[in-house]
Specification:
Chain lengths: 221, 267
């Protein structure tokens, strides 16, 4: 067992995070004891962030104490691991548009004191800007299957992400176009980020996800 | 600082809960669940019926050739059971046609099926009972959908029929979404697979209709007019859905008339 990033552990092919709420498993994942610390297994086939780490993410911007805006929270599987990593001093704000997944997500939020749920459309960031002052967010993470993924990312970055903050964008090629070659889509979407961001790393999520790419970038000063 | 964040967090959890509650108080949630269950019930019924027919055929293989309707078949199995019980008196209630009834009774006397143990027969009867109870539930659901649609989306229900209307709402995942859709999207709801196949490879022709193919007016058209009628129906349906969502008056009769006129013009 090796700690590859703060609170993120790796052994053989599997990833783990340090459980913030010992004794509870969020979505049925395996719990493990390692030298007195309880670890939760992090399935790279279910979480794009885990897949990106597996495929060689150079640096994990989500650290203990980070303030993360997470767009596309879904049922809260990945976000529970983000909550593990940022720990008690950090905070994660999870946004999702669907009431269906929010039901489960709220239950995760009640268990973990560092997650805040917002039921809103990430495409319209002004509808939730009143809840926190702009420029406080240190990491913007986005995983939504929308045609204007890059645009949503830029809009939210404009409203909330502080200068020099980090962004992680999971691009799903198939929600942008069914017919264009996948690599062309990745390229044109990444190019859209250039006005606000410096792209640090692009990671294809094969074989864990099909036609997905994770773009790791930093907001210009 | 931490206190303030926790306070805000509690407020936002409360707010999200409220929003979820409001959404699930709407009728379309139940309509969507019911219509999706309807399809699963049919699949379940067919699966159980198939099993029952296969099993009972060990005892009376000729029956399925004469009674093709699954529901009648299952009723015979459940109420009569053993081949020896196939008498004029017992079967009269279930098989209405005299000709067919006579053939069944004749076949029962000369059947090549083997004798069956009592407890095995009980298991088969139980199976048919379960399958039939799914049919009963289906009837109940149909009337529930009819009632709910009448109150919630009278125009869509009036124009498309309650079940088809509900199917469209489910495919759009809500009346609101359906009302916001362009008619061309409504026309192809339920034909996504064919549509994307066409987009990937333009040599393959695109679909002309999705769920709305189930509408009687589209079905009865000759092939060359089907696409045209489907297009007009989709147009009228989008008007109906908007009238429903924005609480307009009931205009389904007027829409229906216009649609029928359009269909007549085609010949």
């Amino acid at each position: 067992m090796e700690e590859i990033f703060p609170n993120v552990f790796s052994e053989r092919k599997e990833l783990f995070t340090k459980n913030l709420v010992p004794g509870t498993s969020v979505y049925g994942e395996k719990l493990l004891d390692h030298e007195g610390i309880e670890l939760r297994q992090w399935d790279q086939y279910r979480s794009k962030l885990a897949a990106a780490i597996k495929n060689g993410l150079s640096e994990l911007p989500i650290k203990p104490g980070s303030v993360v805006l997470y767009l596309g929270a879904a049922e809260g599987t990945t976000i529970s691991h983000v909550s593990d990593i940022v720990g008690g001093k950090g905070i994660v704000i999870g946004v999702d548009i669907s009431e269906r997944v929010m039901r489960k997500f709220i239950m995760v939020c009640e268990q973990r004191k560092n997650i805040v749920p917002i039921l809103a459309d990430a495409n319209r960031p002004w509808t939730y800007r009143d809840y926190f002052a702009g420029g406080q967010i240190s990491v913007l993470y986005q995983d939504v299957s929308q045609k204007n993924q890059a645009q949503i990312f830029l809009k939210n970055s404009e409203y909330f992400l502080k200068k020099g903050g980090y962004g992680m964008l999971a691009i799903k090629a198939k929600s942008i176009s069914q017919e264009k070659p996948v690599n062309d889509i990745f390229e044109s979407e990444t190019a859209k980020l250039n006005e606000q961001f410096n792209v640090l790393q692009k990671i294809n999520l094969k074989p864990f996800e099909k036609d997905h790419e994770m773009v790791f970038c930093r907001k210009k000063e | 600082m931490q206190d303030k964040i926790q306070q805000l967090r509690k407020q936002l959890i409360k707010k999200a809960k409220k929003q979820v509650q409001v959404r699930y108080a709407e009728s379309d949630v139940h309509i969507i669940r019911a219509v999706s269950l309807l399809q699963d019930l049919d699949a379940g019924f067919n699966l159980l019926a198939e099993n029952c027919i296969e099993w009972y055929s060990a005892h009376f293989p000729e029956l399925h050739n004469i009674v093709k309707d699954n529901e009648t078949y299952l009723k015979l199995v459940q109420e009569l059971g053993d081949r020896a019980n196939f008498t004029e008196k017992n079967a009269a209630e279930i098989i209405k046609e005299r000709e067919r009834r006579k053939r069944v009774l004749d076949a029962a006397k000369k059947s090549m099926g083997s004798e069956i143990q009592k407890d095995v027969l009980e298991a088969i009867k139980m199976l048919s009972k379960n399958a039939l109870s799914l049919k009963k539930e289906r009837l109940l659901l149909e009337s529930l959908i009819g009632k709910q649609m009448q109150g919630y989306a009278p125009n869509t229900a009036g124009l498309a029929g309650p079940i088809l209307g509900a199917r469209l709402i489910a495919a759009a995942s809500g009346l609101k979404q359906l009302a916001m859709m362009p008619a061309s999207t409504i026309q192809l709801l339920g034909a996504e697979k064919a549509l994307f196949r066409h987009i990937r490879d333009r040599k393959i022709k695109g679909p002309k209709y999705g769920h709305i193919y189930g509408h009687a007016l589209v079905k009865k058209q000759p092939a060359k007019h089907k696409g045209k009628v489907a297009r007009s129906l989709a147009g009228k349906l989008s008007i109906a859905a908007r009238a429903d969502y924005f609480h307009g008056e009931n205009i389904s009769e007027k829409l229906k008339q216009e649609l029928e006129e359009r269909a007549k013009q085609l010949d």
